[in-house]
Structure formats: C-alpha cells, structure tokens
Amino acid sequence: MKKQKEIECTVEFTDGAIDRITDAFVDLYYQIEDGIYKGPLLPKQTEETA
C-alpha cells in the first residue's frame, strides 16, 4: 500500500458557523427520521434511558 502524503489544514469558523452547522445536523436528523434520506438514527430515549 502506498503511503499518502500528510496534508496540514487550518480551519477558521466565522461568527455563527457552529450554530449553522448544528442547525444543519438537526435538519438532517429529522429528514432521516421522516424518510427523506437514509441514515443511522440514535435509539429513541425514554426517561428511563436518559
């Protein structure tokens, strides 16, 4: 197997980026739950498991 060259990457988040990323994941979760997209979901939590 050929060894890949390491690449260094620096990421800077603008104001509000974390909130937008979180919102996107929440939207995706509910779209998966509604059957729009396929993907893994966490098991439903109840008060006993929370």
Task: Give me the Rg, rounded.
Answer: 18 Å
How many helices in DSSP terms? Answer: 1
Structural class: mainly alpha
The portion of residues assigned to helices is 25-40%
Return the string of H and E elements: H
The largest pleated sheet is described as:
none
Shape: extended
Strand segment count? 0
Low-confidence stretches are none
What is the mean pLDDT?
A: 87
Q: What does the model show?
A:
This protein is an all-alpha fold and about 50 residues long. The chain is extended, with a radius of gyration of 18 Å.
What topology does this entry show?
Layout: H1 17-33
Brief descriptors of the model:
single chain, 50 residues, mainly alpha, 1 helix, extended
A few lines on this structure:
By secondary structure, the protein is mostly helical. The chain contains 1 helix and no strands.
